[in-house]
Design brief:
globular, Rossmann fold, alpha/beta, 411 residues, seven-stranded parallel β-sheet, six-stranded parallel β-sheet, 2 domains, 14% strand
Length: 411
């Protein structure tokens, strides 16, 4: 009898096997580190004084997620230790008096620090706690995860958030999906807190306080991600040709990673399509102004899609990449991704067929009122507590700290 395993199940089993092997290897490494510390008479972080609040960021790009939270904690006089893996993290130049920033670039030292951490609460946007290198410290009371995008919480690699104690969310659909995963995997229920999206609140506040955009030619922003499934990987210069035919002002803002991972392609495109009165290549560090100037965005699976549509209240044109969900938590749920249901409501899909009529597609997206209604509906589903997200996050952290320490005193 021949046994058959479908590709999805096979991929899932392979992912689990790799996870088990990785965990075993890492456990042996950590055992070696512990023995080395004991033999040398050294001390681990568990010997240090307990830290009330720790924020861990594995990349500088997440400072936009954490900065409003750090600012509010500082305003309330609450001391926070911020651990970053990026030597150029903007947090390092932050002057909040109650914020202590540590940069640990070396991976082994970073995870040793985290795995022996002595703290009450750890807040992070990094998935994979207790799955690979990053292990739960026995001296940490409570781990809290906050997402870094306004979309499906199930688009993490499998088991990415299973071992957090609490998840801060922005929509009911996210809470429903986590509860479904917990039920399927036999996991204890985590605390799910619907707080909102602090970084989007900050963008909206900045937009409200900025000057109005002056009269201008209809402007299209092309902001692809990078890789073979991204817009340039699929269409190359064909998409630029189609855009130039519209007669509109075109701004191209490639993903920063493209200039290193796809340097040859970027050099080729920028040579073949030099800047002129109708074409601009944008590489600003801050995307606020370019998003503000654009009337419509064309993108793929870049996180800027929902930022542009929900904060700036403008339509989008999107590609529909064929995502293999077999390695993600979403594989476990027999339902469409929320993102797949949201995108058609806020814009139109870019296809080979409609690219030749791209001007008409752009005009329809901008002028048709159905997309304005769609944006309002999607915003209501995925952006809870607009303008109050930071307060909700900080209130939860402070209340949880009190709860954890009251329990300790009662015991």
């Amino acid at each position: 009898m021949n046994l058959y395993i479908d590709p999805g199940t096979g991929s899932m089993l392979f992912t689990i096997l790799i996870g088990v092997i990785g965990a075993a290897i890492y456990s042996l490494r950590m055992l070696f580190i512990k023995l080395k510390f004991k033999i040398s008479g050294g001390k681990t972080e568990t010997d240090n004084k307990r830290i009330p609040y720790v924020i861990f960021s594995d990349n500088k790009r997440y400072w936009s997620i954490f900065e409003p939270i750090c600012r509010e904690m500082n305003k309330r006089g609450v001391k926070v230790v911020y651990i970053t893996a990026s030597p150029d993290d903007p947090a390092l130049s932050c002057e909040y008096s109650n914020l202590k920033v540590e940069c640990i670039e070396n991976e082994n030292k970073l995870f040793t620090r985290l795995n022996f951490l002595n703290a009450d609460i750890v807040l992070s946007t990094t998935p994979g706690l207790d799955v690979y290198q990053w292990k739960r410290s026995k001296e940490v009371k409570w781990y809290v995860h906050i997402p870094h995008a306004a979309n499906d919480i199930t688009l993490y690699r499998m088991f990415g958030i299973d071992y957090y104690d609490a998840i801060m969310l922005s929509g009911d659909y996210q809470m429903e999906d986590i509860r479904s995963l917990e039920h399927l995997r036999g996991l204890p229920e985590k605390e799910l807190v619907k707080v909102g999206i602090p970084y989007m609140d900050e963008m909206a506040k900045r937009l409200e306080n900025s000057s109005k955009v002056s009269e201008h030619t209809r402007t299209v922003l092309l902001a692809p991600s990078w890789g073979p499934s991204a817009i340039f990987g699929v269409y190359g210069g064909k998409i630029i040709d189609a855009l130039l035919k519209t007669g509109y002002r075109i701004i191209i803002r490639p993903h920063p990673q493209s200039f290193s991972s796809e340097k040859e392609l970027m050099d080729k495109l920028m040579t073949e399509y030099p800047e002129n009165e109708n074409l601009e290549w944008n590489r600003d560090n801050d995307n606020f102004e370019v998003l503000k100037r654009a009337d419509i965005l064309i993108s793929d699976f870049s996180g800027v899609t929902f930022d542009f549509s929900l904060v700036y209240n403008k339509p989008i044109i999107y590609t529909n990449p064929k995502i293999d969900i077999s390695v993600y938590d979403a594989w476990w749920l027999n339902k469409p991704l929320w993102t797949a249901t949201a995108l058609p409501r806020i814009g139109r899909e870019l296809t080979d067929e409609n690219m030749e009529n791209l001007k008409d597609v752009i005009d329809i997206c901008i002028d048709d009122s159905q997309y304005a209604k769609g944006r309002a509906d999607v915003k209501a589903e995925t952006w809870a507590n607009p303008s109050k997200g930071t307060d909700c996050v900080v209130d939860y952290l402070l209340n949880k700290y009190e709860e954890l320490n009251v329990v300790k005193k009662e015991v």
